[in-house]
User: Fold these one by one.
Assistant:
Number 1:
Amino acid sequence: STQIQLVSRPHGWPTPDDFRTATVEYGDLAPGQVRVRNEFISVDPYMRGRMIDTRSYIPPFRLDETMTGGAVGRVVETTVDELPVGTLVSHQYGWRDIVQEDAAGFRALPEPPAGASSSVYLGVLGMTGLTAYVGLLTIAKMAPGDTVFVSGAAGAVGTAVGQIAHLKGAKRVIGSAGSAEKVALLTDRYGFDAAFDYKDGPVRKQLREAAPDGIDVYFDNVGGDHLEAALDSFNDGGRAALCGAIAQYNATSRTPGPSNMANIITRGLTLTGFTIGHYFDQAADFNREMGAWFADGEVVHDETVVDGIENSVDAFLGLMRGANTGKMVVRIN
Ligand code: NDP
């Protein structure tokens, strides 16, 4: 099995030298084990946080061990009746082409909907879709008639947030992203009412122009200047779901906080942070609603696919730079 391991803890932007490609030999299956050939592995921004050794909601990656994380694959050898050969499964064993572990570490999945590949279970019908659903509806308590602002809007979580917002009755949905192509996609394909490129000028000014009547909900994937701009544009009683702060994940020193926190007081705002691992109890509702939207074509998605396990680090770094539209995945040939 070809596996990607973390060998040093990056300071600032990770480099290929922080990783190595290892070959791991698996023996015969022990009783209770299955062998899975991965189809897709997920690269996710939260993995940057796990590369350093700090107090967090999830322990750091261990050095000289294979990178863990979401992946989908098919059982190719088995010792258990519940997971016969050919079963599509998801698991958290991460960046490797083949994985052999106890059956308990794998969850059987239905075949992907017609026309989709199994990667949808890492994105729009998986963790990032669930994050969008929970963050918007449970954390930010979006209500019909709300004006919603989403940062990181052309990414995996952001594209789902924008669409769910409209399906749940938002009045106006505004997104920000990092290129003209992404901004065009937001309005043309994903139904955003307005969108802007945060590299074109101050977010505060661009958001005010896009939302002249203010915003009620902010779904924050970015932090920094985006959060500050949202605090300026909030209407009274506004709510933010603090989902990510990708603008600072590779920072080498403390990043400045918003200068306008007092708006939280004067406008009675609620800013709530969350990590999706505490909300898996909503997966059944999500699967039902999102599954129906997806099947009916009411939710569309994009994936940026990088081929080959040996290119996983490039895929991860590309994700952090914005090389992706929608979900970034690595396809295992
Ligand atoms: P995305 O698909 O959105 O990919 C990351 C995107 O971030 C890039 O495409 C890039 O798009 C954007 N980006 C990178 N640097 C910056 C910057 N300095 N300022 C603004 N945008 C930037 O990833 P995900 O959808 O998987 O994740 C989105 C966010 O949600 C992340 O912050 C992640 O940590 C968070 N998250 C949180 C979870 C939770 O449980 N709380 C669960 C899952 C994700 P662009 O070209 O537009 O710059």
Note: Residues 44-46, 128, 131, 152, 154-158, 177-179, 182, 198, 221-222, 243-244, 246-247, 274-276, 319-320, 322, 324, 328 surround NDP (CB under 6 Å).
Number 2:
Amino acid sequence: MKVQEVEMVMSAVSEAQYPTDQLPEIALSGRSNVGKSSLINKLINRKSYARTSSKPGKTQTLNFYKVESQLYFVDVPGYGYAKVSKKQREKFGQIIETYLTTRQNVRGLISLIDGRHEPTEDDVAMYVFAKYYDLPVLVVATKMDKISKSKWNRQEKIIKEKLDFNPVDKFVSFSALTGAGKEQVWEWIERQCEI
Ligand code: GDP
């Protein structure tokens, strides 16, 4: 999709604030600092539309980005940030869980995982959770420019093994710096949203 028009619609704290226009929604999750804002900005060809968080864990609400009046990206709160309290963490978890399990418009989840490392326990929990609810998942390994291309396949294998990756899902190696994987991410989104 060639994106020209993006609207930051809202930061929603409660369900009552979610959009009502029934467009398909693609949720994006990942631990803080994984590169979620950078991915969103790359997908919509903006330098800093989605907030690139200088402070990890800052995004604590669902952010809805309306793209070309065709779909929403829904940026869900970053998880796994050690410095927030247990109570806060539980609250984020609840927002994400309620959204993903009750929202009819969600067509899939983009789960971002740092491509340089093994998935964290939180990454695994997120994937297991999505699979439990039959949500189609695109796993995006981020920051792949930091790894030599000869190691990409090996890294993909490590991540898939740790996640017990389901072959119905897709995996993309991505770099916000070089744009690698961007087209594949868009293809998956368009397929999920039937656009
Ligand atoms: P968020 O907290 O998940 O939204 O993460 P950000 O998008 O703010 O990125 C966190 C940090 O990682 C920032 O310093 C980004 O510049 C950096 N970063 C994100 N994506 C990439 C990437 O693909 N390659 C490299 N080299 N750095 C990245």
Note: The chain has one domain: 6-193.
Number 3:
Amino acid sequence: MALITGKKCGDEEMGALGLETEVAEARTTFDSGKTKGFEWRKSQLEALLRLLQEKEEDMLKVLKEDLGKHRVEAYRDEVGALTKSVDNALLNLKKWMAPEKVSLPLVAVPTVAEIVPEPLGVVLVMSSWNFPIGLSLEPMIGAIAAGNAAILKPSELAPATSEFLAVEVPKYLDCEAIKVIQGGPQVAEQLLDLKWDKIFFTGSAQVGRIVMTAAAKHLTPVTLELGGKCPAIFDSLKSSRDQRMAVGRVAGAKWGSCLGQACIGIDYLLVTDEYAPTLIELLKGVIKEFFSNSEHLARIVNKHHFQRLCNLLQDESVAASLVHGGSVNAEELFIEPTILLNPPLDKEIMTEEIFGPLLPIITLKKIEDSIEFLRARPKPLVIYAFTHDEKFKQRIVDDTSSGCVMFNDTLIQYLCDTIPFGGVGQSGFGQYHGKFSFDNFSNRKPVGRRNFLIEFSFRYPPWNEKKLQL
Ligand code: NAD
């Protein structure tokens, strides 16, 4: 049974009582023990894989409808990335579920112990609109693999995708345990009011605060995958081949993935005064090469965000910094790849996450000054740096803090299941992907086992000095 199937996304669609009934059913299912076994988890992951394979075209279609994503981009960033993640979970599920033997200190002899991962219970996954399938189902893979019942609330700002998930997920997955509930902030607030065993949230820091406040009421653990404002440091690379490759990777991360509406996309560049003119010319070249046909670029999600981005550009001092692009098409919700040189640092474009195709380039006297620049700002989701200088790389690792550091490439970390994905400080907390997702949705429960063969009386009163010596 799909929830709210056939109705429009909206706040008024399902009353709080309906939500409670659905969540109660998921809890009854979890309490029955159905979701805990290996076979159930495997069958659900296989079903998810079937959904990804059989409904691939439908997914590419709704992603085009909601965000104008080109089918190749949509496959690469969402359907393909998810397929890889489900494959990986299926391959490793048995290993992840197995108790982990641990050694104990002498004081515990002859106790033995292991860490047994147990599911948390009924979990809530709330996702954002920019990768509306990827960021909905990626956490669900972890929730299912770890043996939980899970409720997904996709973003109402990607309505075609939200509807797709509400209709298709219940056709493939066990709808007594896995449910999709559509709706906006009001529905989200009603959901947040209920008791959960975990809330996994992807979205803005502003709503992240609301999630944490609601979770505090029930002492519910949360993972917050929040905003980016990810910088890329661009050192003056010597070889023209390396330069070309590097600007291609910058362009891919700034414009080629949801038109800059990506949490791990590049927000702004840091470069030396001296190198900036070269970099700007290189960027103009790559924009022409990659994006001459605007059909290969996504669209801004809605009028509100389109206007927000236009307002950033309309500020007089920001407009004065324009060196490339800047044209907008309100009908198509399109803003062309745009470069700004040294917009004022106290303007919104540099104090808030841009989340769009505007690329500020901030110049510094020396590239090493970028470290102080970053240290003076909130911790980003990712710091990118293009450089050959090994000492500088080490300083970036040692002297800055971020969810991830990536040298000489962009975005690829999202596809690497063996490294954790997540933020720090203002960019969030809690990590997922691969085994980290499984752990995120598990309680790693230590289980100790001892026998009755021996007893040490020094553990118990009556106390005496001799016992202190032992
Ligand atoms: P958002 O915070 O507006 O919405 C996220 C979710 O919260 C949606 O499901 C929405 O319905 C719900 N929501 C909205 N208002 C609410 C309210 N008042 N009370 C309760 N729930 C509410 O975020 P968004 O606009 O969908 O996404 C953009 C933000 O997400 C950006 O900041 C971006 O960087 C961040 N993001 C982070 C990651 C990551 O992995 N770290 C990934 C994608 C997006």
Note: Residues 71-97 form the longest helix (27 residues).
Number 4:
Amino acid sequence: MSANVSFTEPWTGTLTHLEWSTPRLLLLAFINIPILSIVVNALWQLLPRPKSQPPLVWHWIPYLGSAPAYGRDPIGFFSQNREKYGNCFTFILLGRRVTVTLGAQGNDYVLGGKHTQLAAEEVYSPLTTPVFGKGVVYDCPNEKLMEQKKFVKVSLTIDKFRSYVGMIEDEVKEYLNGDPEFRIWQTNDINEWGSFTLDVFAELTILTASRTLQGREVRESLNKNFAQIYTDLDRGFTPLHWLMPGLPLPSYRKRDAAHKKMSSFYQSILKNRRENLAEHEDDDVMASLMKQKYRDGTSIPDPEIAHILIALLMAGQHSSSGTLAWAMLHIAGRPDIQEALYKEQMESFGTPDGGMRDIDYEKLRELKVLDAVVRETLRIHPPIHSIMRMARDDIPVPATLSAPSEDGVYVVPKGDIVLASPLISQVDPAVWEDSDTWEPLRWYDEKGVAAQANKQYNEGEKVDFGFGLVSKGTDSPYLPFGAGRHRCIGEQFAYLQICTVISAMVRRCEFRLEGGVPKPDYASLLVHPLPARIMYRRRKFD
Ligand code: HEM
């Protein structure tokens, strides 16, 4: 096939006929369409915009928008655009409009918004439903999620926490005694330094969470086969799987197969437990879920119990292991804090013969240095940098958030994703002194900014969204566990787990860091440190 093109040469006036073949035309289109769309997109951005719309971050490539800049370094991206546009602006993320609202008021706008106007499930479901499964979390109406959160919350009692501390310490002991990363530890030599990778914290997190929350069968099944299923599931929990659901790629197929296997695994445990009720008196989250009922009187179906447990496994794993890794990196890099932590362990658990008692829950909660270490780690390294909701309506942004100008108040249009980043307010130099420095000492000052922010977060007005009273706290500059109806229910457990693992390690080893604390890796959904090794040396202890 070919096409005839005729044109008059402007400089000579002669009529020229060209016969172009299809490949040539296609090539021309191939080159020109992208250029044309870039030009049209640039011109469109230069057109006057409705004054009520937040400013749009400039981008050259349509559809792709600001995805590379946001994906590479979300915090740098937010900070730069905050300087340019203020606390409220919109950017394009793979064809979606995302309106960012920053600062404590931005957090309040997103996290404190009405559920009828700002919905989490419409944003998160494409990512979470294939991994967690049907009928739970974001694959159900919000009222049902609130009930599911209540089911889990009531099963996390103080009595259980008391028993978990010993189990977690045992897991750390066994790990140090058996894992090849701790070969030097196993030689009993207190002078030699060894080193381990940060993968240790992912392993300790899954071992301790399965021994406590997930139940004995899950802990007993943590073998290579389980690890492979978990890995396939986990690899389906990435920004790509969220933004481009359903691509025909192996990681999507493996994720779906892994979900089926994981769901059947939990359901077979449930079946087994039901058949042997008298034999085992388990006291874990699964046992508690088996006894509870939805408000309409129905029991929780087995597939839903299985999917809630998968959700807990996934929600807790990266957040706790990342926090542990950051905390231990900083501890290793700050000998003064490490010494204070060790002294605190000795003072609280030391025995007259120079040894140490097992850790106990009540005492653990009183440890001031340890508490400050975890709070400070969550301040500068919260695992979730972007919290999102879908605007179900046109929603005005409070005047105090919009740049004060004659433009008046911005309105987020229906269909936009709105995004808050508590990390930005947690490292805002206008709020925190030396905001980028990891400094646990800031939490000692009872009248300081940190203590006040924490008070605002945890001691303000209480609201019950359906899973028990929680402090509203949405306008605090410190929100590591989110706020409002989607606030984390794993907070107490995570604290307990992280504090016990740190205690168990600090009393047994000294740590050292060579090369400084690594930078954050933003490639995964939950922020982790880039790979690094921590040096350790055995202390004179058990
Ligand atoms: C929600 C952080 C550990 C289960 C959240 C949210 C944050 C968060 C920021 C709010 C998300 C949003 O508003 O969109 C953390 C951190 C953790 C941690 C920093 C550890 C250091 C855990 C653990 C579990 C868990 C151990 C399970 C045992 C959940 C659940 C939700 C949640 C079920 C509720 C989701 C919703 O209502 O939409 N977490 N989390 N988290 N987290 Fe955690």
Note: The mean pLDDT is 92.
